[in-house]
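G., the chain you wanted modeled:
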Amino acid sequence: MARSGLRIAILAIEGTNCDEELRVALATLGARPEIIYLKQFEGRDVDPSERRRLADYDVLFFPGGFSAGDYVRAGAILAARVRASIGSDLEEFVRSGRLVGGICNGFQTVVELGLLPGRSGGRLGPPEAALMTNDSGHFECRPTFVAWEGGAFPALSGVPKGTRYLFPSAHAEGKLVLAGDPSARLADLEANGQILFRWVAPDGGPAQYPWNPNGSFGAVAGLTNPEGNVFGLMPHPERTFFRAQLPDWSRTGSAEGFADGERFLDAVLRYAERRA
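Predicted structure as tokens:
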């Protein structure tokens, strides 16, 4: 499939606010992203011409923001509404091998759906983890670095382990907490290759606050499901897509061109093209 034929759904409800940034990034890469409100998938209170079917898309993104005001827990209300309305469609989408990505609030939502860390077969279920309040007790918004763990995520299969990306963080609830015995659960995720990214310091070394902005267990900044087609990360690749978005672009060169977010999202779309 040509990149121009790659249909991407960016799911929005009240409170999501990074959908347009993500749409621009994906469109710049040549795909066909569309911001779709949940009620369009539900067919509720919309004109028939605005009705959409999840099965017609190649990739689904849950974008960042504060869906439903982040009441109860971040992402919990959106997850409950998705489960109740299009849950079976989403399970079939995941089982088909198509990509589902969650960024920041989207990562929180996918965890609340039970898709991350995930069960075999793409089944929804009770959360097996949560993204809890940052150790600092407040909203953290700054440039941060993550490193690719060299795991099972097929979109980055050709990228050397340890490759660093500068993605900004902007969240109050990003501390990953795993159910059960956290150390044993983390070891299982590592053995399965399900750690997508870890927070690192600017020199690539272990991250302490503020480079680990939330105190996440094991410095985990992103996860995949066992099959590698569902992924989520707390920082925002769409916010360092263009060089002009970098915090130091005026000291390091021209504002023209692209940055680390483009490298990551391009790899995601390249993989989606191969399997479409």
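The mean pLDDT is 94.

Shout if anything looks off.
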